[in-house]
Specification:
Strand order of the largest sheet: 3-2-1-4-5-7-6
CATH architecture of the domain at 12-157 and 182-209 and 265-272: 3-Layer(aba) Sandwich
Number of strands: 7
CATH class of the domain at 12-157 and 182-209 and 265-272: Alpha Beta
Strand content: 15-25%
Radius of gyration: 19 Å
Largest sheet: 7 strands, mixed
Order of helices and strands: HHEHEHEEHEHHEHHE
Length: 273
C-alpha cells in the first residue's frame, strides 16, 4: 500500500513566483539568512573533517562569497548552490566563479544516493510540505559519513504580526482567516532528524528581535525576503486596507517600545546530524 501524499500546506508555485519576483533585491533583505549562515560556518569550522562534495541548498545570493572569507571553505573541495527560484539561480551563476549552481525543488531532490559529503540548508526547508520527507531525501543523498546542517524559521517567528492580524480581523469581521504561515516547533526537530535516519542530531534556537518604525516597514522586509505567507488554503481575495491599518494600530499598541518603534520576533532553529 502506497503512503498517503503529504498534505498541501504551502503553495510551492506561489513561493517560487515570489522568490522570482524578489530575485533582484533579495540580497538587500538577507540579514536573517546571513546571521544563520554565519552560525553554520562557525559550526562547520568546529568539525574535524573535510568534505569532497558539498551542496548549499537555498539561501540566495552572496553565501558562496561569504563562505570564501571563512576557514570553513578550506574544508570543502567541490561546491554547488541551488535555489527553488530560477531567477535567483541565474544570479548565483553570475556571481559565483568558484561554485556550480542549479535550480531544484527541495521536495524532489535530483541526486543519486550517497553522492554528497555535506548538505547545508540555510533558511528554506520551513516552506516544504513534507519536512520529514525532505530530510529523508537529504539523508539518502549523503554518504554514510556525510553531514547535514541547516536552519529554518521556528514557531515564534512573526508572533506579534500574527496576533495583531488575528485581533484586527476578529474585530472588523467577527472572524479570522489564516494569513501567517505556521512554522516548526523547536521541541520536535531532534526527533524529526532521528526519524529521517540522522545520527547524533543536534538542535538549538537563536531568537532575534528586530525593531521597525511600524508594521508596514516589517511587511516590506518580509516581501523583500520572499518570506510572506504562501499558505495553500489562504483567502483568495485581497485583504482590505482597513484590516492592515487596524492591524498596524494594534501592533503599535501591544508591541512597541517607549520610542514608538515596534518589535518583531524571528526564531531561527539550527539543526544538524
Amino acid at each position: 500500500m502506497n503512503p498517503s501524499p503529504a498534505p498541501q500546506l504551502f503553495d510551492r508555485l506561489l513561493l517560487k513566483q515570489r522568490r522570482n519576483r524578489s530575485a533582484g533585491i533579495i540580497h538587500k533583505y538577507d540579514f536573517l539568512v546571513q546571521r544563520a549562515f554565519d552560525d553554520i560556518c562557525d559550526r562547520l569550522e568546529s568539525v574535524t573533517r573535510d568534505f569532497d562534495k558539498a551542496l548549499i541548498m537555498g539561501g540566495g545570493p552572496g553565501l558562496v562569497e561569504m563562505l570564501e572569507t571563512r576557514h570553513a571553505r578550506s574544508k570543502i573541495d567541490w561546491l554547488v548552490q541551488s535555489d527553488l527560484s530560477p531567477a535567483i539561480t541565474k544570479r548565483l551563476g553570475s556571481s559565483q566563479a568558484n561554485a556550480a549552481h542549479l535550480s531544484l525543488d527541495e521536495e524532489n531532490l535530483p541526486f543519486i544516493d550517497e553522492c554528497l559529503d555535506l548538505v547545508i540548508a540555510p533558511m528554506g526547508l520551513h516552506w516544504t510540505n513534507d519536512l520529514p520527507g525532505a530530510l529523508v531525501q537529504i539523508n539518502r543523498a549523503l554518504k554514510p559519513d556525510g553531514f547535514f546542517i541547516g536552519s529554518i524559521l521556528g514557531g515564534s517567528t512573526s508572533t506579534e504580526l500574527r496576533q495583531s492580524l488575528l485581533a484586527a480581523e476578529t474585530e472588523l469581521t467577527e472572524g479570522a482567516n489564516s494569513r501567517i504561515s505556521p512554522f516548526a516547533g523547536t521541541f520536535d526537530m531532534a526527533s524529526l532528524l532521528q526519524r529521517a535516519g540522522f545520527a547524533l542530531p543536534v538542535t538549538d534556537v537563536d531568537r532575534v528581535t528586530v525593531r521597525y518604525d511600524n508594521a508596514f516597514a516589517l511587511m516590506a522586509d518580509l516581501r523583500g525576503m520572499a518570506e510572506t505567507s504562501v499558505l495553500f488554503d489562504r483567502p483568495r481575495t485581497p485583504a482590505s486596507r482597513a484590516l492592515f491599518v487596524r492591524m498596524a494600530e494594534i501592533y503599535a499598541e501591544r508591541f512597541s517600545d517607549a520610542d514608538g518603534r515596534i518589535r518583531a520576533t524571528f526564531e531561527i532553529i539550527h539543526l544538524a546530524g
